[in-house]
């Protein structure tokens, strides 16, 4: 038909072709709107499970126990025979998710990473028990040595509320008052979880300066204690102190624990060996009673003098009166603690931080404003503020009190030990790594050269990863509980 006729020619288009583009765009738009309606964690989770390497990522997280804050490394390791140059084994992160490998954060604090703190507590149990029962390179003969479990406390800095197992806190027949008008007694019966427990009866009377300075010098006081023990033994044996090592060796392992009053006290294992350490016996005159006398004398006689200051005068730092020392037996024997009980007790507290016990924070504070904003009790806040005030004194600058205000002045390690006491954390980690590798590595007689190149590339989780990691950690913890219960009940189906 011609154009002059006034009619145009309309081409025929298939309906599906006309609507294909709009439909595809509509579906994509709807999908995008649905994704936007999801939370950030849900969107990240969809991205994660859609990754072809998602299964490998889960294997990595399972291998580190669901660590709450993993460290990511990128690099490679090649192991060669030193003689022939032959490549024995090699590994690279090139094929890993994100070209990186997740490793544990190794934080001992349960408040920061419960999976790693559980592993650290297990290593501590093995470390302490090896020094009591043998194993991990320590001779079994150590269980026949004189061993003590010693408790050393801080002195009183003022009366605090106490939980006494159903007895009144501080009963007084009269109603005495301090100079500030507050009662010096308390007839209430507190439970262990009562927030009043550990709080001063009168904060204005409490010796906050003495408390902080004791914490700052607790490490030196411990050193004086161990030296005094050795001096007492040398004197009792009639040998010069410098020659004591020719006759016996005293080994220690101690853990620091915060009390409810926010004061540190120490639990220590003391072991007496011969001159060759754990592999030899001490002289006949070095009896269990003698080592008991030595630690009791050292606890009563050791002290540290703090530098004089116009701000606080003179301070003499010593141990508190709540001293205790008990012989350790290989197995439970009446009131005497056993090897396993002592190791379990130490392992229980090594994963606790100041924040876990309500005695401080897990992070450092940088100003008085940060101390005022901290979520702590008024008692702990007063201790932290005292650290900050004393930390500004020139004569106490070396104590770094402001840097350790979050730990109310205590800057020592939670667990310390003598070199000869037992194995080390590093040795335990290496043994665990070798166990996991199985028999894939050559024998010890092979001369090997390892060439490694690693670098840090990140840490932590994305929102979606964090949820899966928590589930993995909870699953591992549940399996451990079931395994433990099966052993206790005699059900061996869980034991493989």
Topology:
Layout: H1 15-37, H2 40-49, H3 54-63, E1 71-81, E2 87-92, E3 101-103, H4 114-133, E4 146-152, H5 208-216, H6 218-237, E5 249-258, E6 264-273, H7 288-301, E7 303-309, E8 313-318, E9 324-327, H8 339-350, H9 368-373, H10 378-391, E10 415-417, H11 425-437, E11 448-459, H12 463-489
Helix pairs in contact: 2-12, 4-8, 5-10, 6-7
Distance between the termini: 89 Å
Radius of gyration: 32 Å
Q: Whole-number average pLDDT?
A: 87
Order of helices and strands: HHHEEEHEHHEEHEEEHHHEHEH
Instruction: Report low-confidence residues grouped into runs of 5 or more.
Output: 1-10, 439-443, 492-496
Principal-axes geometry comes out as globular
According to DSSP, the number of beta strands is 11
Helix content, binned percent: 25-40%
How much strand content do the residues show?
15-25%
Describe the strand arrangement of the main beta sheet, using strand numbers: 9-4-6-5-10
Structural class: alpha+beta
How would a crystallographer describe the biggest sheet? Answer: 5 strands, antiparallel
* Contiguous helical run count: 12
Describe the 3D structure.
Strand 5 (249-258) and strand 6 (264-273) form a beta hairpin. The strands form three sheets. A five-stranded antiparallel β-sheet has the order 9-4-6-5-10, with helices on both faces. Strands 1, 2, 3 and 11 form a four-stranded antiparallel β-sheet that branches. Strands 7-8 form a two-stranded antiparallel sheet. Helix content is 36%, strand content 16%. It has helices at residues 15-37, 40-49, 54-63, 114-133, 208-216, 218-237, 288-301, 339-350, 368-373, 378-391, 425-437, 463-489, and strands at 71-81, 87-92, 101-103, 146-152, 249-258, 264-273, 303-309, 313-318, 324-327, 415-417, 448-459. Mean pLDDT is 87; it is low at 1-10, 439-443 and 492-496. The chain contains twelve helices and eleven strands. The protein is globular, with a radius of gyration of 32 Å. It is α+β, with helices and mostly antiparallel strands.
């Amino acid at each position: 038909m011609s154009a002059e006729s006034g009619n145009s020619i309309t081409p025929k288009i298939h309906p599906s072709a006309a609507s294909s583009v709009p439909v595809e765009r509509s579906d994509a738009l709807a999908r995008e709107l649905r994704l936007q309606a999801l939370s950030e964690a849900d969107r990240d989770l969809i991205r994660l499970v859609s990754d072809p390497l998602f299964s490998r990522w889960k294997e990595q997280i399972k291998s580190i126990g669901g660590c709450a804050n993993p460290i990511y490394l990128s690099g490679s390791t090649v192991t060669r025979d030193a003689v022939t140059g032959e490549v024995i084994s090699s590994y690279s992160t090139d094929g890993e998710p994100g070209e990186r490998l997740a490793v544990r954060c190794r934080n001992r604090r349960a408040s920061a990473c419960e999976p790693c703190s559980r592993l650290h507590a297990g290593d501590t149990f093995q470390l302490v028990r090896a020094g009591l029962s043998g194993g991990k390179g320590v001779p079994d003969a150590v269980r026949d040595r004189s061993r003590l479990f010693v408790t050393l406390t801080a002195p009183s800095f003022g009366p605090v509320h106490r939980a006494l197992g159903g007895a009144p806190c501080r009963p007084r027949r009269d109603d005495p008052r301090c100079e500030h008008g507050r009662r010096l007694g308390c007839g209430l019966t507190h439970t262990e979880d009562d927030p009043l427990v550990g709080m001063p009866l009168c904060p204005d009377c409490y010796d906050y300066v003495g408390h902080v300075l004791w914490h700052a010098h607790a490490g030196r006081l411990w050193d004086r204690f161990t030296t005094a023990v050795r001096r007492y033994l040398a004197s009792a044996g009639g040998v010069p102190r410098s020659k004591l090592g020719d006759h016996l060796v005293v080994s220690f392992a101690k853990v620091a624990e915060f009390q409810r009053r926010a004061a540190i006290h120490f639990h220590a294992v003391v072991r007496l060996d011969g001159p060759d350490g754990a592999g030899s016996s001490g002289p006949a005159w070095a009896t269990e009673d003698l080592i008991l006398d030595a630690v009791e004398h050292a606890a009563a006689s050791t002290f540290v003098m703090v530098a004089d200051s116009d701000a606080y005068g003179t301070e003499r730092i010593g141990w508190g009166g709540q001293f205790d020392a008990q012989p350790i037996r290989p197995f439970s024997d009446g009131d005497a603690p056993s090897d396993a009980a002592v190791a379990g007790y130490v392992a229980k507290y090594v994963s606790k931080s100041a924040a876990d016990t309500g005695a401080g924070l897990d992070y450092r504070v940088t100003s008085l404003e940060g101390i005022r904003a901290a979520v702590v009790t008024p008692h702990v806040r007063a201790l932290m503020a005292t650290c900050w005030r004393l930390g500004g004194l020139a004569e106490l600058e070396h104590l770094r009190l402001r840097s350790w205000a979050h730990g109310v002045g205590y800057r020592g390690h939670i667990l310390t030990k003598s070199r000869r006491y037992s194995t080390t954390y590093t040795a335990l980690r290496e043994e665990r790594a070798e166990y996991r590798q199985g028999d894939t590595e050559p024998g010890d007689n092979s001369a090997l050269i390892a060439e490694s190149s690693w670098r840090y590339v990140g840490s932590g989780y994305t929102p979606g990863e964090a949820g899966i990691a928590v589930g993995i950690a909870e699953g591992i913890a549940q399996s451990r509980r079931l395994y433990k219960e099966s052993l206790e009940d005699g059900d061996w189906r869980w034991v493989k």
